[in-house]
Every structure is written in C-alpha cells, then in structure tokens.
C-alpha cells in the first residue's frame, strides 16, 4: 500500500538516450544507452530518492533495463519485466497493488500508459529523451478505484551537462 495517506505515486519515463547506429551506420536491434543516457539514468535515480518507490517495471530491452538500473541499485529493488503489448495488464497490476512505482518504456508506449492511468500526456518524438511523467492517485476509502488522479509534472526534462 502506498503510504499512510493512501496516495500512490507512479513515475513513467521513456528510456534515455540510446546509441543510434554502429560505426557502419547500421541500426542496432537492441541498442544500449549512450554515455549521456547513462548520466540521465543516474539523474533519474537522484530525482526519485524522495518518492519512496517500491517497484520498478521495465520492458525487456537493454536500453530500458539500463535506464532503470541506477534507481534499482540505489533502492535495492529488482527490475520487473512487463510486456509493452499488454498495457492493460500493467495498469491493472498498478491499481491492484497501489504501490509507488517507476515504469520505463518507449516513445510509443509511455504516453498511452499515462493516459490509461488517468493522466494527460504529450506524444513523444524519437529524440525525446528524459521526459518524466509523475502521476499521483489519491485512492478512496475502499481502495479499489481512484477518487482523484492528477499529473503532478507532465513534463520534466532531465538535463545533464
């Protein structure tokens, strides 16, 4: 259960900056993060310290797992893999468990998850890295339906100099 006041925080982010292609210009099937992307992942871990994250979810791609890794390490939590083709399953799990959670996904999946959770999201372009959505759900007394959902921060650009 998410905190004494029954408020659940869900943080959603697209993976961070990835390597686009090898030296021959061929795209990678499952690219890793760039050095900047790794710095962005570290910045996310720092940003999330005060939010009492209890679970971390990621798609099963190297770039999303690498984006989640610093937060998982700092909090001593496992990274749980979810299927981005079945967003309803993840949303149902989040609503049932009501735990503060971090979700890492992709430009074509995170906005839809934000909306399924009651927030509003902008479309993410291929180069939109470091966009973080923070949704707070205030659960009613019965604990099974959201009584109020609001987006605390619809856009947070993580900048790393």
Provide the fold topology.
Blueprint: E1 7-14, H1 35-48, E2 55-58, H2 62-75, E3 79-81, H3 87-97, E4 101-105, H4 110-116, E5 132-139, E6 146-153
Parallel strand pairs: 1-4, 2-3, 2-4
Antiparallel strand pairs: 1-5, 5-6
Helix pairs in contact: 1-2
Structural notes for this entry:
The chain has 161 residues and is an alpha/beta fold. The chain has a six-stranded mixed beta sheet with strand order 3-2-4-1-5-6, with helices on both faces. Strand 2, helix 2 and strand 3 form a beta-alpha-beta unit. The radius of gyration is 15 Å and the shape is globular.
Low-confidence stretches: 152-161
The multimeric state of the shown protein is: single chain
Secondary structure tally, helices: 4
Radius of gyration (Å): 15 Å
N-C termini distance: 37 Å
Helix percent reads 25-40%
**What fraction of residues sit in β-strands?**
15-25%
Secondary structure tally: strands? 6
Decide which structural class fits the backbone. alpha/beta
User: Overall pLDDT, averaged?
Assistant: 84
């Amino acid at each position: 259960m998410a905190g004494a006041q029954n408020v659940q925080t869900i943080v959603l982010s697209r993976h961070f900056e990835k390597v686009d292609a090898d030296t021959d210009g061929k795209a990678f099937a499952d690219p890793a993060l760039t050095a900047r992307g790794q710095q962005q992942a570290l910045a996310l871990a720092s940003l999330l310290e005060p939010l009492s994250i209890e679970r971390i979810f990621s798609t099963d791609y190297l770039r999303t797992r690498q984006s989640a890794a610093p937060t998982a390490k700092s909090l001593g939590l496992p990274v749980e893999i979810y299927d981005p083709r079945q967003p309803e399953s993840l949303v149902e799990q989040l609503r049932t468990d009501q735990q503060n959670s971090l979700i890492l996904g992709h430009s074509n999946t995170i906005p839809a998850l934000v909306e399924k959770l009651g927030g509003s999201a902008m479309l993410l372009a291929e180069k939109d890295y470091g966009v973080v959505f923070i949704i707070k759900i205030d659960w009613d007394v019965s604990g099974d339906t959201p009584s109020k959902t609001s987006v605390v921060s619809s856009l947070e650009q993580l900048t790393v100099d």
